[in-house]
Batch of 4 targets.
Target 1
Amino acid sequence: MTSAPPAAKSTATLGVTSQPSGTPEQRAAADARAILREFVPPPGAVRLASRPALPGNSPVMGLNSTDQADAVGYWRVSGAATALREWEKAHISRSFAWQDVITGPPSWNTVYSLPAVPGVLPTREMNVQFYDTGRGTTVIMADAMVSWQPPRPASEVIPASVTVVTIAASGPWQGNPAPVTITSVPVVRRLAALVNGLPLSTVGKGVPCFMGVGFTLTFRAAVGGPAIAVAVGPAECGVVHLTLNGKDEPDLQPPGSYRATVLKIAGLHWTLLSNRPGLLGPLRVSSRGIFTRNGTTERG
């Protein structure tokens, strides 16, 4: 297995970034097919017409997404699964970033990622998984997984009537800051616009999602009045939960800058504690999940 690696491609030539037509769902399906074509079969690999029998209880990578397209292919080839995985890393387009996720028998895998298409395709990945069949051969599954961004309902908007917001902290903030109430209408409306501008979350409903490090933003029309809108988050899975007049709305997906932007708009100087590993990383945790062959979720 000494073939030269392919020449690097611009990410603009991968997927549908250069073909911005069709609905988000159609673009996701086309992107998944295009990403699957970037898989480089090892020498001697034979493509299979359908999914073969795989080792029992083999974990499988997937996206925890409510809106996604998949394109899957299977190959059989002689050789050890670990060696074949390393060969694939050396020969796939360098436009992909990669991460090893499953690293032990009976299967090994690497997830290859491409940049998002903002506002359209938030996740673009290919899981290449290598299954040791125990007979001197390896089965390879390449699964291109692309999520699309659903439109946010026009009704899910904090109204312009809000003039007051109370910001309460959750998580390991230094000094456990007390809630702050802001009555500056321009500031309140900028915070409302920030929440109103968030896209819908595509994180699957089965993902455990606790409060995490963030805020509760409670918007009112007047000091002491009833809550008109409450935005809570980001949670550990990265979503912001919004209620309007006490009614739960679909979860929203903030960018990694959400916390800093809230603090900047509000003029707050809260600082996260640094002694809580794992809570100070990116707001949006991986949307991947590991599933057994029977579909039972093992880890989100």
Target 2
Amino acid sequence: MKSFARRNFCLTTLGLASALLLPAGAAQAQALESVKIVVGFPAGTTPDVLARRVAEKLAPSYAKSVIVENRTGAGGQLAVTAVKGAPADGSTILLTPLAMLGVYPYTYRSLPYNAEADLAPVSLGVKFDIAFAVGTGVPTEIKTVPDFIQWAKANPSRANVGSPAPGSPLHFAGAELSRLSKVDLQHIGYRGTVAAIPDLLGGQLPAMVSPLGEYLKYIPEGKIRVLATSGSKRSGFTPQIGTFSEQGFKDLEVQEYYGFYLPTKSSPAQVQALNTAIRQAMAHPQVKEALDTFGMEAAAGTPEELASTLRNYSKRWEPVIKNIGFKAD
């Protein structure tokens, strides 16, 4: 399976007991003047849009003014590093996919941050399924993952699976499918779905692993066919489509997450105040409407739940990455 990788290329539990004894909103005596949510991806991307919807709901209760700052570069590392070094006063918030914290330690030889040492978990933001889809380059009779595997065996020169983020769990899920099916599926890496989706629609790219939400608007017209989703049960967005597990690939039961963090020296009161504000924001109908567009579910919870999710996420992907032998640098 190393050939798959060769072709392309991260708590200590917080002591919140005293803060939890306070009434909601009392942990922070008054709203902050100005707050920024730092996102490691460009304007218009899914994390950016989510950050902007949440920012609208954090004002004016948590802060009088909340902006989104796009710190792009190094696959999201610059955003994490910026928050690591920010004042621990509740005014600088990180919204990040968990891959920057739970996958990068295994794909990069060194990182400028350590999730456990440098960041204070606040709350999960969202969870979502990933999905395996085929485009116009695959015959219409291919309707399931086993169908695709048989087609790939018969067409080895076309047995290519793309991802919009080399070195991400999307990439690695494709590698796992290759390993589990014992078919040499070659990875084709793209820089985002903006580049990948046209190739899927045009038939140049036979198949792709991507967040389910990236496919939703294309499913009705039939040019992109989602063959499987990655959750423990069928997605509410695509209840007609079976999971990987239903189709014989139980090891591909995975989910992706975004989480909210503060700098590590933030006080328990600051963490609790932001946690309360985020949970209220994520429950707002306008935020849910935005999440539906991206095929995501609100998943706000406690700081401890975020810490546990990150640990389990990291444990899930570590052996996969080591088996592939992938390194991003």
Target 3
Amino acid sequence: MIVVGIALISLGLFFFLSSAIGLIRFPDCYCRMHATGKADTMGILLCLLGLATFVLHKGFEGERFLLVVKILFIPLFWFLGGPTATHALLRSAFEKGVRPWTKDGKEILEWPEGES
């Protein structure tokens, strides 16, 4: 059970690291938000599942089980709030006229009239 917890936490840390690298390396806010939104969500889920296995490795007693339930509520709220926040930030950037980066500099979206 401890090995499973270590594996889950290590895999979660890998997703957090890939998220940080994507935040640094990607060219525009749309790509960066995609990298951080997806990888952070998976990273937090895996890390907290690993933490829950550490808590439960001695058995399903009352206090331990209650603690695991509380731990598992964190990713539930993250799944509800994370994509909503990412969408709101990207929608705000789109409405402010932040253009997506393209390799050849061509437009990939048709912008509404009067927008820059």
Target 4
Amino acid sequence: MPETNVTHRMLAADFLTPSYRIVGKIMAPNSGVIGMMNDTTTSFMEVLDAKLARLHMPTKLVGEYNVIDLVKTNIFAVGLMRREDVGPQAVARGGFQHMVKYAIRVTTQVYELEGTLEWSGRFDFATIMVEGIRDFVPLYDATLTAIMIPQLRIESPAILFNRGQVDLLALLSDKKES
């Protein structure tokens, strides 16, 4: 196997697919988890020491594997243990710009997320959904809940969500009081 000059570090993470929650470790490069998830040269990734649970039974472990491979496009979200695990600020934010923090709600077919989106400039749904080439976008101080299984709730300093899986995105400040 050829040697590379890229330094990798082992990071713990939660991976959420349409039917499974996978808890394990990944070898992340210097660009962090966001760099790995948005790497367009590969559609797959390895998770080490993986523990699998079906979404409809989130507390029941259905398998443990030394290594599993995941298809990135089928991952809805990646929960991280630390904000720093996302990656360097320039990579996570897409450059060195002044960032505005937006409290948002994101829904997919399976999950609901709430947290803080750090975005340069004005909040614009179309721009957030199509600007750049990255599929995974960081949401900070985030909470993820499975729509049909509300007992599956993950609170994390950072969650990367797959914008290709998004059904809606709304500002929490636009929510009407009931």
